[in-house]
Structures are given as C-alpha cells and as structure tokens.
Amino acid sequence: MNEFDIIKHYFNVHHHRKDVVMGPGDDCAILQVPANTLLAVSTDTLVSGVHFFADMDPEALGHKALAVNLSDLAAMGADPCWVSLALTLPEVDHDWVTQFCAGFFELAEYYNVALVGGDMTKGPLSITVTVHGTLPEGKGLLRSGAQAGDAIYVTGTLGDAALGLQQVLGKVSVPDEHQEFVRFKFEHPHPRILVGQALRDIASSALDLSDGLLGDLAHICRASGLRAQLEVEHLPLSDAMHASVSQEQGWELALSGGDDYELCFTVPELHRGQLDIALGHCGVKFTQVGRMFAGEPSVELVHNDEPYQITGQSWDHFR
C-alpha cells in the first residue's frame, strides 16, 4: 500500500456527526461550529522511546494517544467534537496499524469524536493528535481563575500510572492481584470529560495531571498569582499503591510521577455543596488535598502542618 491507500483503508472511517461538512479526503476539513460557542483546541505529540516504549501494545497506544488529548479538553470543560491524526511510521505493519486503529477509534466512538483529517509519513515512530471541542461562551475553565481561600481538589487516585511504569521497568514489585490494575492505569488513561463539563459553573480553575501534581499545580499558582499548600496525608492513594510501596514512596509517585490524567481544580467554599452534588452524579471520586493562599506563586508541601519535602520533580522534557 502507498500512503493514500493506507489512509483510505484504515482511517477513512464513516462518521455520524452532522457538523462535519468535509472530513478526510480533501485539502482541509470543513466543520460547522455551533452559534454562541467557543472552539477549544489542543495538540500533543507522542514519540517512541520518550512517551512510550517501542514495543507498547498498539491497541493501548491508539487509546492513549487520543485519551491524553481528550484530557486537555476535559480540563477546559469542553465538549469533544473532532480530531486530526498525524502518524509517522518506520514501515507499514498492517497488524500494528489495525490494532492501533482499534484502540483509537473505540475511544473516539465512545466520546462521539470524528476523525476529520491528518497526515501519514515515513520515519521514526511518532503520533501527533489535535483535538477540537466546543464550549459555551464564557464557560471555559482556565488556570488563571483561582482565588485565595479556594480549596484544591483532585479526581481519582494519584500515582498509579507511575507505579505501573515502575513495574514495567522492574523497579517496583507490585503484588499479583494489582499488576493488571496499575498497567491498565499506565496504558489506558480515562479522560474526565464529564467531570470537566460538570465543573464549568463550580470550579474557579482547572488542569489535567500529566506531569505530576506538584509541577502541574504550579501552573495554576503562576497563572493565578497565588501560593498553594498541599497536605500530603490527604493525597488519594489506591489499594495497589498501599500494597506495593511505602507511604512516603506513594506520596512521591502521586506528586511527581505523572501520566495520571486526572483533574486538579480549585473551588470557592461557596460552591462546595454544588460540587458534592455535581460530581456525585458523575460517579467519580474526588478529594480535597489543599488550599490556595495569597503569596508568591509556589507549591508548598505539609504533613500534619509541618513542612514536608520530596526528592522527585515533575516531568520536564529538557531537564
């Protein structure tokens, strides 16, 4: 198959969205954006050997490539709509492409996301995904909206994906009954789309946790001009984490491990009751882990009101 045969055979998937005027097959996609809405756009590149192992299961890779981008839409409270995919392959392996597409399109179908274009090239394995979503005017969740006194929350449990990676690398011994769970958390992140939508009128700021809570929360601090205080004893850790490592190691993985793709958000005390109701309807666990204060932008760690330090740092490609 040549480039265009591959695109036609694997990626020219019929979609049911009426807002796609022109999808794959022309020079550009043409999309109908609803009136009185804003467009939210995010792009991520995943590179073999940097973001994933070269022998990673292609179905899981297809899922993860889309999921990490949808997580950005979730952090904005956006409704997912369209996606474009640029895939660079060292060679055409039909079994690999078939499995990759299975993971990618299963998640796309779940969130009613239409593939509307992209590119196919030969070279070192890498995947670039651009997602588009819509927002009601004035409803986007920004990093800059936090206020002093706001409580800091996270969804789910933290550090499980990092624990899964440590297991794959042979650096941690995870009990047999928890191995599948942590590997699944590492390879199949679940974007919190419904949570982000529910937070539109409740949260003052939000972001998704891709590089670790410690580093990601610092983005909210800088954008909002505030100081954050995290209480490490309140970090939500899974049963798998408790069974695999010490409490201190669990806290370190939760703070700096990355790849969780949970949401971190701030909420004024006035909206606490609304939060309980809204996220209760989503069926997603959430935990208060700290509070925002006036002061120089920074993230401080405390344990039982005493200063606490860790040795790890959140992910940075160029550190």
Automatic annotation (TrEMBL):
UniProt keywords, alphabetically: ATP-binding, Kinase, Magnesium, Metal-binding, Nucleotide-binding, Thiamine biosynthesis, Transferase
The organism's place on the tree of life at top rank: Bacteria
Binding site for substrate: H51, D259, W315
A single MF term (Gene Ontology): thiamine-phosphate kinase activity
Annotated binding of Mg(2+) 5, by residue: D211
Residue numbers binding Mg(2+) 2: D44, D72
Amino acids binding Mg(2+) 4: D27, S42, D72
Annotated Mg(2+) 1 binding sites: T43, D44, D119
Record: residues binding ATP: G118, D119, R143, S210
Chain ranges of the PurM-like N-terminal domain: 25-134
UniProt pathway: Cofactor biosynthesis; thiamine diphosphate biosynthesis; thiamine diphosphate from thiamine phosphate: step 1/1
Domain PurM-like C-terminal: from-to ranges: 147-296
Catalytic activity: thiamine phosphate + ATP = thiamine diphosphate + ADP
Record-listed E.C. numbers: 2.7.4.16
Keyword check for Transferase: yes
Positions contributing to Mg(2+) 3 binding: D27, D72, D208
Any single biological process term in GO: thiamine biosynthetic process
InterPro entries documented for this protein: PurM-like_C_dom (IPR010918), PurM-like_C_sf (IPR036676), PurM-like_N (IPR016188), PurM-like_N_sf (IPR036921), ThiL-like (IPR006283)
Keyword Transmembrane: no
Family designation: Belongs to the thiamine-monophosphate kinase family.
Function: Catalyzes the ATP-dependent phosphorylation of thiamine-monophosphate (TMP) to form thiamine-pyrophosphate (TPP), the active form of vitamin B1.
Something else known: Reaction mechanism of ThiL seems to utilize a direct, inline transfer of the gamma-phosphate of ATP to TMP rather than a phosphorylated enzyme intermediate.
UniProt name for this protein: Thiamine-monophosphate kinase
Organism the protein comes from: Oceanisphaera avium
